Amino acid sequence: QAQLVESGGGLVQAGGSLRLSCVASGLSFSNYEVGWFRQAPGKDREFVAAVKWSDDSTYYADSVKGRFAVSRDNAKNTAYLQLNHLRVEDTAIYHCAARHRVKAYPGSGYTASAFDHWGQGTQVTVSS
What we know:
The chain is mainly beta and 128 residues long. The protein has strands spanning 3-7, 10-13, 18-25, 32-39, 46-51, 58-60, 68-73, 78-83, 92-100, 117-118, 122-127. Strand 7 and strand 8 form a beta hairpin. 32% of the residues are buried.
């Protein structure tokens, strides 16, 4: 059974940094695209960033472009999300998600419903 476990969240001041990790088990990690999503209280879950399975192509929401960086280490079955220059509005629960490469065709998009496997999330709180 596939499992994703996030870690690395916490409380940080505005302008600070955090590094989130997502460790996968029960799936062939190198065949999966990994996405990061976040959900703030009272808001829908939104796409943050994604990294392809083997060529490390990355994609970002406009709101985090230039501040966040997504990466992966297939040898460790782990994906990362580096959060820099954090803002109060970045406060949310951050989830990693995975979908098999056959589902990541051009035009498939980066909505939450497009991903099959989810972690429980890690809280990121940014104070002013």
